TrEMBL record:
GO cellular component, one term: membrane
UniProt keyword annotations, A-Z: Membrane, Transmembrane, Transmembrane helix
Protein name: Major facilitator superfamily (MFS) profile domain-containing protein
Domain of life, per lineage: Eukaryota
Record field: transmembrane: 63-81, 93-114, 120-143
Origin species: Amborella trichopoda
Position of the signal peptide: none
PANTHER family linked to this entry: OLIGOPEPTIDE TRANSPORTER-RELATED
Molecular-function GO term, any one: transmembrane transporter activity
InterPro entries assigned to the protein according to its UniProt record, in alphabetical order: MFS_trans_sf, PTR2_symporter_CS
One BP term from GO: oligopeptide transport
């Protein structure tokens, strides 16, 4: 048990110093990747199609949701929420601008702090919560404003 712990600490220190390169790589990825516990990542446990299916599925659902909301948002804002056309256009422009600029924030968070998979998971969760709130506001009568007289 102690030898495995010593070997793991040695691998971790080699990884931190950058000497764990392709020649002495062994089973590790060699790109300074670490798992959630801070240990070097094994090559056979990471990446490839496992991560790809998660990302492709998330992006496909996100694209369909973005397109569906974008098409119906004008009607929803003007007919259901009784906004004027100028106010609805301003709301839609703000929504689209936010949708196109938040990937820059996500890129900074992914590169500097969380990593790509945690960032995708966090922002997908936020997106899902927003979609749920929009669905509730459209379907539950308590969340709808009173009709105009």
């Amino acid at each position: 048990m102690g030898s495995q712990e010593e070997e793991r600490l040695l691998d971790k220190s080699l990884l931190e110093h950058g000497t764990l390169n392709n020649e002495i790589l062994g089973p590790y990825t060699g790109d300074v990747s670490v798992d959630i516990h801070g240990n070097p990542v094994l090559r056979h446990n990471t990446g490839n199609w496992r991560a790809c299916t998660f990302i492709l599925g998330t992006e496909c659902c996100e694209f369909m949701a973005f397109t569906g909301i974008g098409i119906n948002l004008v009607i929803y804002l003007t007919k259901i929420l009784h906004e004027g056309h100028a106010s609805a256009a301003r709301s839609i422009t703000t929504w689209q601008g936010t949708c196109y600029l938040t990937p820059l924030l996500g890129a900074v968070l992914a590169d500097a702090y969380w990593g790509r998979y945690w960032t995708i998971a966090v922002f997908s969760t936020i997106y899902f919560i927003g979609m749920g709130a929009l669905t509730l506001s459209a379907s539950v009568s308590a969340f709808k404003p009173p009709s105009c007289v």
